[in-house]
Amino acid sequence: MDSPDSFRAGDSVTWTVSLPAFPASAGWVVSYRLLSPSGVAIDIETTADGDDHVATLTAADTASWAAGTATLVCLAAKTGERKTVDSKTVSILPDLAVIGTFDGRSRNKKTLDDLETALAAYASAGQGHIAEYQVAGRVMKFRSVEEIQALIAHYRRLVIKENAIMALANGGQPPGRCYYRG
Length: 182
Known about the structure:
Blueprint: E1 6-8, E2 13-17, E3 29-35, E4 42-49, E5 52-57, H1 59-62, E6 68-78, E7 81-93, H2 107-124, E8 132-135, E9 138-141, H3 145-169
Parallel strand pairs: 1-7
Antiparallel strand pairs: 2-5, 3-4, 3-6, 4-5, 6-7, 8-9
Helix pairs in contact: 2-3
């Protein structure tokens, strides 16, 4: 499916889909259905362009879309027939022009930042020698410094990969080979 992997609420978007098995010139009409956990389905129609199908959404069309994960379903129809061509998971990104706060870090970056903060707090508390304790029958066990450092190294590698992918996606150059030794 040639549709976007993400949409930003409040933005206009247009894409063209070429489906050789369902050409517009043969009477096939392609439509999309965006299904979200909120239960509000959004139908997206296309127009014919030779054998291709063009979907166009205006800023007004996407303005009320809630941020989150949704499923985009591609359907092809022709007199008395309908075929589900494909479906995929897409991200609906928040409208940055209307929201008041935004944390654009990925889940991996947030986790890495939290781990680094936890390690700093653990080290500065001066209690690095306490591995576990028990109070009134409840046991509290802490990760070792080595375990936290291993998690930090793991998430640092994931963030480096994400940054390289984003650089490519935005038309830039990846930073080359990135090595990290934790």
